[in-house]
């Protein structure tokens, strides 16, 4: 991977769904969490996060809700819907299958 | 679930569309929250607040772009654009209220007129009967000889019905029906009602269900006088009995005889005649109880029923018709056999054929009268709408022309031509939608007026005719959409041709020329169509005038007639005669009455009685009709109505049931039967009601008159004295007032009531009013065509004025130059008027050609004037030319008043 920001198509959706699956979060927290978990390996521009989240919301996989944060500000929290949960399972399985396949291919060279 | 997600999406889309501001604010808030948090973070990392804010913004990589990307995920662009167009259109329409008002008013009138006429056509001509599978119903129309007594439009004897019913194999059922006016007594109150006398299988074959109780069945129609049961029509029960809940099981009286109400028919079913509905259904075996001629059931010569059949599945009308011919021929054979020695000579009668007509829409006298006039009116309203569209298109084009600057700026900053055309079309659609709503309202009012105009027979029609019926709404929608396309497309295309640069250069003359040419074309078309409408209205008005002034052969002034239905009150013949004579004598003694007499047939009502008869010394040719029409009158009738007797004598009081029977015949009767002989002393023989035949001796000859209607030439007629007519059960009293006819009604009603409160004074009308009634189609055509002609001319005038005002404004500079170079005001005036004259002349020319092509189709509706009437056409052309020049006069005056100094300075 030359440029870490170049995510494989559709992977961003999987990342976002996975993060939100743990607990409802606002976009800022999602971006923080993404950075925390993946370090600098996966750099997603904060700006690009928003259209992606809105798309998932329109798809019906995420549900948005305005809530107060710990510091008392209003923020838009995203939560997983049931359809989102199913989509996540599907995407995750697909990813594992794909990743497994790729790593099997890559392992050919090591052996 | 998939649909759960779908619901979620629709909710979001709707939210986007309906809570637009809120969704936008939330989007903004979301990003603001990010910026605030990120800035706070950077400050915590030790950056200056300004740097922190800048960094936060940069992290988003273009706030507005991101927002737009988010908006794009909502996929509501098309709807958004449309909403934007509609809003923009509303704003722009509100900004030109004059245009909006003019467009709406004319469109509402155009659409309203079309919808109104269409609803009448729909109810009268298109709607099928509210029965099961109406398309299977056929009406059996016998085209063969009928030798005897015909009541109204009835065509079958009861015997023939029975014969056909039992022998046929092409119908699942065959039903017979006739209608009669009866006196129906419920709870001690007597009402005039329409009774339908039906065969027992009537409801079953039609597939009509009861809304209460039960309906009639074959078991209710077996034994003569043995089934005193009736079914009420739902409308009668609901409107005239106030939905009385305990009516089923009650006893009512018809013609004095008790009947039990067994049920109420399905809502909406009013018998098989459209526009003349039935109140009560009676089994045919009870005919004798309901009317006085019950014995007619026994006679092959009494044509008292109409027959409908329901075709078996898979049998076509043609096939059924072919298979029924032998059965019909057998019936004819039996009819002829009963004539005995009066049997027609030759075999001509064998030519008689049975024709099956479409029965899905029932029968309707109103339909026959009004079908062609209504079609003509529909064509006229369509033309008015065309003119309206042309007008709005013209106005729109003028608006587009004045908005060119705005449009070209929009084009210049990147709006696509298609988007602008769509914008203008949306505006047109808005106008059309508003026009449709206003039009529906106008239609509703118009229909009520029309129905009121069409008189009481049509009252019933009103019940079923709501404007909001599906097909009418669909029609209105289609008409409005077509109108929007007609007046919207032209300006929209015109506008897209607007070049970006030219209006910014402020030069107007160039391509505006094309628009002006187009608008002139529209105005020309308006003048042309207007001419057709004005010419048509001229023809219809002249027709009405000619009919109104037709020589009837009797004096119609201050003449009143009213009906006394003694048969419906259960009177026998002798009692009827006595009662009628007494009433006439009473009426004569009322102050303000100059004369009174009896006539069984009402004047100008198409009600003369038809008889087949044998005339002494006359041998009819093979297949020749032996029918003549007759009236039954009292002595003194001819003097009273003012029809001179040219030979012989009048009936006298001495002509009684006991004396020899006498008749008076008309001049045309004489010229047919006694061209070279003296008719006096000859005899005529006829049969009616019963089996017996009666011979009358001719004692007088009367002048020909138009008793049936105003349009038809007098037919050969004979008159019988009421004292010698064997089925007297109903008659009209004719009264001539010395002064005001209106003053007579009260005293007459009172004196009849004194004689018998059970016999109401029916159909009280002056003969003038009666004329209005039978001229109803003509009056409808004349008044509507005049209204449409005026409307069309007005619209054409407005259109012409508009295009001329525009053209003068455009040529102000040119005119200024001309005036500066020495042209006089009158030269300029003439120049503009010549222009107007050009448009008018070409419009009138085209209109004349159009009239020549179209007006011959209304010829059947005309009287005393041809479809191609040069005088009418010339007058119409003159009217439109005058209106055109008048509406061009004002712009021409402006042009001549142009101040050259001002115009040139302006440049």
Overview of the molecule:
The complex is a heterodimer of chains A (111) and B (907). Chain A has 111 residues and is α+β, with helices and mostly antiparallel strands. Chain A is built from 4 helices and 3 strands. In chain A, strands 1-3-2 form a 3-stranded antiparallel β-sheet. In chain A, β2 and β3 form a beta hairpin. In chain A, α1 crosses α4. The radius of gyration of chain A is 16 Å and the shape is globular. Chain B starts with a helix and ends with a helix. In chain B, the strands form 3 sheets. In chain B, strands 3-4-9-6-8-7 form a 6-stranded mixed beta barrel. In chain B, α6 packs antiparallel against α12 and α18 crosses α26. Classes of the chains: A alpha+beta (111), B alpha+beta (907). At the A-B interface, α3 and β3 of A face α1, α2 and α4 of B.
In short:
Chain A is of the alpha+beta class and 111 residues long. Chain A contains 4 helices and 3 strands, in the order αβααββα.
As laid out across the biggest beta sheet of chain A, the strand order is: 1-3-2
Q: What's the number of helices of chain A? A: 4
Q: Largest sheet of chain B at a glance? A: 6 strands, mixed, barrel
> How many β strands of chain A by DSSP?
3
Write the H/E string of chain A, N to C.
HEHHEEH
Structural class of chain A: alpha+beta
End-to-end gap of chain A: 22 Å
Average pLDDT figure of chain A: 82
Shape of chain A: globular
Output the strand order for the largest sheet of chain B.
3-4-9-6-8-7
Contiguous low-pLDDT stretches of chain B (5 residues minimum) are 457-463, 503-511
Estimate the helix proportion of chain A, in percent. 55-70%
> How many H/I helices of chain B?
28
**DSSP strand count of chain B:** 23
> What is the CA-atom radius of gyration of chain B, in angstroms?
38 Å
Query: Which chains make the largest contact?
Result: A-B, 24 and 28 residues
**Could you tell me the radius of gyration of chain A in angstroms?**
16 Å
Mean pLDDT of chain B: 82
């Amino acid at each position: 991977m030359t440029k870490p920001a170049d995510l494989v198509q559709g992977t961003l959706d999987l990342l976002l769904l996975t993060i939100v699956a743990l607990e409802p979060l606002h976009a800022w927290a999602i971006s923080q969490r993404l950075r925390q978990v993946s370090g600098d390996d996966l750099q997603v521009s904060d700006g690009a996060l928003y259209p992606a989240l809105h798309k998932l919301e329109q798809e019906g996989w995420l549900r948005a809700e305005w809530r107060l944060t710990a510091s008392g500000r209003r923020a838009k929290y995203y939560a997983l819907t049931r359809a989102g949960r199913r989509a996540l399972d599907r995407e995750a399985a697909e990813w594992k299958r794909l990743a497994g396949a790729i790593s099997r291919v890559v392992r050919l060279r090591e052996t | 679930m998939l649909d759960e997600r779908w619901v979620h999406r629709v909710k979001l889309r709707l939210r986007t569309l309906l809570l637009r501001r809120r969704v936008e604010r939330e989007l903004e808030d979301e990003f603001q929250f990010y910026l605030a948090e990120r800035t706070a973070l950077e400050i915590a990392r030790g950056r200056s607040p300004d740097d922190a804010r800048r960094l936060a913004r940069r992290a988003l990589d273009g706030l507005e772009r991101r927002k737009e990307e988010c908006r794009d995920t909502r996929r509501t662009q098309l709807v958004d654009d449309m909403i934007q167009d509609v809003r923009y259109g509303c704003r722009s329409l509100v900004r030109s209220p004059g245009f909006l008002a003019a467009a709406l008013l004319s469109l509402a009138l155009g659409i309203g007129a079309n919808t109104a006429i269409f609803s009448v056509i729909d109810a009268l001509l298109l709607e099928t009967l509210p029965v099961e599978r109406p398309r299977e119903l056929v009406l059996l129309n016998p085209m063969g000889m009928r030798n005897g007594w015909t009541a109204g439009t009835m065509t079958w004897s009861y015997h023939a019905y029975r014969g056909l019913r039992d022998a046929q194999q092409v119908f699942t059922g065959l039903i017979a029906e006739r209608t009669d006016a009866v006196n129906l007594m419920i709870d001690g109150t007597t009402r005039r009602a329409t009774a339908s006398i039906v065969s027992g299988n009537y409801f079953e074959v039609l597939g009509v269900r009861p809304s209460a109780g039960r309906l009639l069945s074959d078991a209710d129609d077996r034994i003569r006088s043995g089934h005193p049961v009736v079914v009420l029509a739902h409308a009668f029960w609901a409107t005239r009995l106030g939905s009385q809940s305990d009516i089923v099981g009650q006893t009512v009286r018809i013609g004095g005889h008790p009947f039990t109400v067994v049920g109420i028919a399905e809502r909406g079913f009013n018998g098989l005649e459209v526009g003349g509905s039935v109140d009560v259904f009676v089994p045919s075996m009870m005919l004798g109880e309901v009317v006085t001629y019950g014995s007619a059931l026994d006679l092959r010569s009494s044509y008292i029923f109409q027959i409908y059949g329901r075709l078996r599945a898979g049998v076509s009308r043609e096939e059924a018709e072919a298979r029924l011919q032998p059965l019909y021929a057998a019936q004819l054979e039996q009819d002829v056999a009963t004539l005995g020695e009066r049997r027609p000579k030759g075999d001509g009668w064998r030519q008689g054929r049975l024709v099956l007509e479409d029965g899905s829409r029932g029968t309707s006298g109103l339909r026959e009268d009004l079908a062609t006039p209504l079609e003509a009116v529909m064509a006229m309203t369509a033309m008015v709408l065309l003119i309206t569209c042309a007008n709005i298109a013209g106005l729109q084009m003028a608006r587009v022309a004045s908005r060119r600057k705005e449009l070209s700026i929009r084009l210049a900053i990147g709006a696509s031509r298609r988007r602008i055309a769509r914008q203008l079309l949306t505006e047109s659609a808005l106008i059309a939608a508003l026009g449709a709503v206003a039009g529906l309202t106008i239609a509703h009012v118009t229909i009520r007026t029309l129905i009121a105009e069409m008189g009481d027979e049509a009252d019933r029609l009103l019940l079923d005719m709501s404007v909001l019926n599906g097909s009418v709404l669909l029609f209105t929608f289609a008409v409005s959409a077509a109108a929007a396309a007609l007046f919207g497309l032209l300006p929209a295309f015109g506008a897209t041709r607007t070049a970006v640069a030219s209006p910014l250069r402020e030069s107007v003359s160039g391509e505006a020329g094309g628009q002006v040419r187009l608008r002139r074309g529209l105005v020309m078309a308006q003048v042309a169509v207007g001419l057709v409408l004005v010419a048509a209205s001229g023809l219809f008005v002249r027709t009405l005038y000619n009919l109104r002034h037709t020589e009837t052969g009797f004096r119609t002034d201050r003449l009143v007639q009213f009906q006394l239905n003694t048969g419906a009150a259960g009177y026998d013949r002798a009692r009827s005669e006595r009662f009628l004579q007494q009433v006439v004598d009473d009426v004569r003694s009322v102050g303000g009455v100059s004369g009174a007499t009896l006539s069984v047939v009402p004047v100008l009502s198409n009600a003369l009685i038809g008889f087949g008869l044998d005339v002494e010394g006359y041998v009819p040719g093979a297949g020749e009709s032996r029918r003549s029409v007759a009236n039954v009158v009292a002595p003194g009738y001819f003097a009273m109505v003012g029809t001179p007797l040219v030979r012989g004598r009048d009936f006298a009081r001495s002509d009684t049931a006991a004396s020899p029977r006498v008749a008076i015949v008309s001049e045309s009767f004489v010229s047919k039967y006694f061209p070279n002989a003296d008719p006096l002393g000859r005899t005529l023989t006829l049969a009616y009601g019963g089996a017996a035949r009666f011979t009358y001796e001719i004692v007088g000859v009367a002048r020909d008159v138009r008793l049936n209607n105003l349009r038809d030439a007098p037919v050969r007629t004979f008159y019988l004295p009421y004292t010698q007519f064997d089925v007297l059960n109903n008659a009209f009293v004719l009264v001539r007032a010395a002064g005001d006819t209106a003053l007579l009604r009260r005293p007459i009603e009172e004196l009849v009531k004194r004689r018998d409160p059970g016999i109401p004074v029916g159909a009280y009308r002056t003969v003038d009013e009666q004329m209005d009634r039978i001229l109803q189609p003509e009056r409808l055509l004349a008044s509507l065509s005049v209204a449409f002609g005026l409307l069309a001319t007005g619209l054409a005038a407005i259109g012409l004025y508009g295009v001329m005002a525009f053209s003068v404004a455009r040529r102000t500079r040119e005119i200024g130059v001309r005036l500066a170079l020495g042209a006089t005001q009158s030269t300029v005036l003439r120049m503009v008027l010549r222009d107007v004259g050009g448009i008018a002349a070409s419009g009138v020319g085209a209109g004349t050609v159009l009239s020549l092509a179209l007006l011959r189709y209304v010829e059947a509706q005309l009287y005393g004037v041809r479809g191609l009437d040069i005088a009418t056409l010339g007058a119409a052309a003159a009217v439109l030319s005058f209106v055109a020049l008048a509406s061009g006069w004002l712009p021409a005056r402006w042009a001549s008043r142009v101040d050259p100094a001002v115009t040139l300075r302006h440049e």
